[in-house]
From TrEMBL:
<dbReference type="InterPro" id="IPR047124">
    <property type="entry name" value="HI_0220.2"/>
</dbReference>
<feature type="domain" description="Uracil-DNA glycosylase-like">
    <location>
        <begin position="30"/>
        <end position="187"/>
    </location>
</feature>
<protein>
    <submittedName>
        <fullName>IclR family transcriptional regulator</fullName>
    </submittedName>
</protein>
<dbReference type="Pfam" id="PF03167">
    <property type="entry name" value="UDG"/>
</dbReference>
<dbReference type="InterPro" id="IPR036895">
    <property type="entry name" value="Uracil-DNA_glycosylase-like_sf"/>
</dbReference>
<dbReference type="InterPro" id="IPR005122">
    <property type="entry name" value="Uracil-DNA_glycosylase-like"/>
</dbReference>
Length: 194
C-alpha cells in the first residue's frame, strides 16, 4: 500500500459514521497508526475520557500500560513507533457494569485492511477479550489468566496483557508471576523494537 493509500484509509476511518445511530456521543474514531511502527497496542474501545480528548490511553490505565511497556508518554504517542488500534474505534457508551463492548461493525469494516496496511508491526500487545478473540482466535486458552500465563506460546509477535485498569489490582495481586515473568522480557523486546 502506498503512503497515499495508507493516509486515505486513515482519512476514511476518521470520517466513518457507520454505527453513528447507536453511539451515545456520536462517532469520534480514536486511532493512532502508521506504516512504520513496529509495536501495536490493541485495546477494547475508547472510554469516555479518551473520547473527550481524542488521545488513546490518556488515563490511569494508560499510565500503567506505559509502565508495563517501559516507555514514556512521548514514545507511546510517537506514531512512527507505536500504533494504537482498538477493537472499536469510537466510545460505545456505558452500561450497568461498565463500558459497553466495542461496536461489532467496526472490526468488520476496518480491521483486516488496517492490519494489512500496518506493515511494520512486529509485536502486538493484546488487551481484552475482543482483542484476544480477533488476534489469537483458536490459539487462546479457556480463560484470560491461562492465556496470559501461556505467553511463551505467542512470543515474540503477540503478548496478551490483563487490562491495565486500576480496577484490575486484585488480578495483579493474585497473579504476581505476571510482573515477575512477563514484564521483564516484554520491556526488553520493546526496547529492541523502538
Ligand atoms: S465505531 Fe467504528 S464503525 Fe462505528 S462509527 Fe466509529 S469508526 Fe465507524
Amino acid at each position: 500500500m502506498s503512503k497515499d493509500s495508507f493516509n486515505s484509509l486513515l482519512r476514511d476511518i476518521r470520517a466513518c459514521t457507520l454505527c453513528a445511530e447507536v453511539l451515545p456521543e456520536g462517532p469520534r474514531p480514536v486511532v493512532q497508526a502508521s506504516e512504520s511502527a513496529r509495536i501495536l497496542v490493541v485495546g477494547q474501545a475508547p472510554g469516555r475520557r479518551v473520547h473527550e480528548t481524542g488521545i488513546p490511553f490518556n488515563d490511569p490505565s494508560g499510565d500503567r500500560l506505559r509502565d508495563w511497556m517501559g516507555v514514556d508518554r512521548e514514545t507511546f504517542y510517537d506514531v512512527s513507533r507505536v500504533n494504537v488500534v482498538p477493537m472499536g474505534f469510537c466510545y460505545p457508551g456505558t452500561g450497568a457494569s461498565g463500558d459497553l463492548p466495542p461496536r461489532p461493525e467496526c472490526a468488520k469494516a476496518w480491521r483486516a485492511q488496517l492490519m494489512a496496511a500496518m506493515k511494520g508491526v512486529e509485536l502486538t500487545l493484546v488487551i481484552g477479550q475482543y482483542a484476544i478473540a480477533w488476534h489469537l482466535g483458536t490459539r487462546r486458552r479457556k480463560t484470560l489468566t491461562e492465556t496470559v500465563q501461556a505467553w511463551r506460546d505467542y512470543w515474540p509477535d503477540h503478548v496478551v496483557l490483563p487490562h491495565p485498569s486500576p480496577r484490575n489490582n486484585v488480578w495483579l495481586k493474585r497473579n504476581p508471576w505476571f510482573e515477575g515473568d512477563v514484564l521483564p522480557p516484554l520491556r526488553e523486546r520493546i526496547r529492541e523494537l523502538l
